[in-house]
């Protein structure tokens, strides 16, 4: 068995090859806020998809789909990065209407 490298031996410029691990462990249950996406207002710029640290915004044919709430941690990065403000963060348990 080879020993793991210490932090001093790891080369600079390491790569993160995949987004977060929540898709494997379904960590969305503990969020306090959830994103509500307004499809009509969305311009499909895909900024939310790119910036989501958990890769929980699926896409198809170059268009975003509904957020996968089973892996979303409710961080709100999608809301903050959205140029047209079509994502609102609602407190978990609050009505969508």
Describe the protein:
The chain has a two-stranded antiparallel sheet with strand order 1-4. The protein has a two-stranded antiparallel ribbon with strand order 2-3. It has 97 residues and is of the alpha+beta class. The model has no long low-confidence stretch (mean pLDDT 85). It contains three helices and four strands. The protein has helices at 22-25, 47-51, 77-81; strands at 33-37, 59-60, 63-64, 87-91.
Q: Give the overall pLDDT as a whole number.
A: 85
State the helical fraction: 10-25%
Q: Per the principal axes of the C-alpha atoms, what is the gross shape?
A: elongated
Note the total helix count: 3
* Computed structural class: alpha+beta
**Series of secondary-structure elements, N-terminal to C-terminal:** HEHEEHE
The largest sheet is: 2 strands, antiparallel
Quaternary organization: single chain
By DSSP, the count of extended strands is 4
Strand order, sheet with most strands: 1-4
> Which stretches of 5+ consecutive residues score pLDDT under 50?
none
Instruction: State Rg.
Output: 17 Å
Descriptive tags:
single chain; two-stranded antiparallel ribbon; 4 strands; 14% strand
Short description:
This protein is an alpha+beta fold. Helices cover 14% and strands 14% of the residues. The strands form two sheets. The chain has a two-stranded antiparallel ribbon with strand order 1-4. Strands 2-3 form a two-stranded antiparallel ribbon.
Topology:
Layout: H1 22-25, E1 33-37, H2 47-51, E2 59-60, E3 63-64, H3 77-81, E4 87-91
Antiparallel strand pairs: 1-4, 2-3
């Amino acid at each position: 068995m080879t020993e793991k490298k210490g932090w001093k031996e790891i080369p600079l410029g390491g790569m993160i090859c995949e987004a977060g691990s929540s898709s494997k462990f379904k960590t969305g249950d503990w969020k306090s806020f959830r994103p509500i996406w307004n499809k009509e207002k969305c311009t499909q710029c895909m900024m939310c998809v790119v910036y989501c640290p958990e890769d929980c915004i699926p896409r198809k044919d170059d268009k975003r789909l509904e957020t996968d709430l089973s892996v979303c941690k409710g961080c709100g990065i999608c809301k903050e990065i959205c140029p047209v403000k079509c994502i609102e963060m609602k407190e978990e348990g609050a009505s969508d209407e």
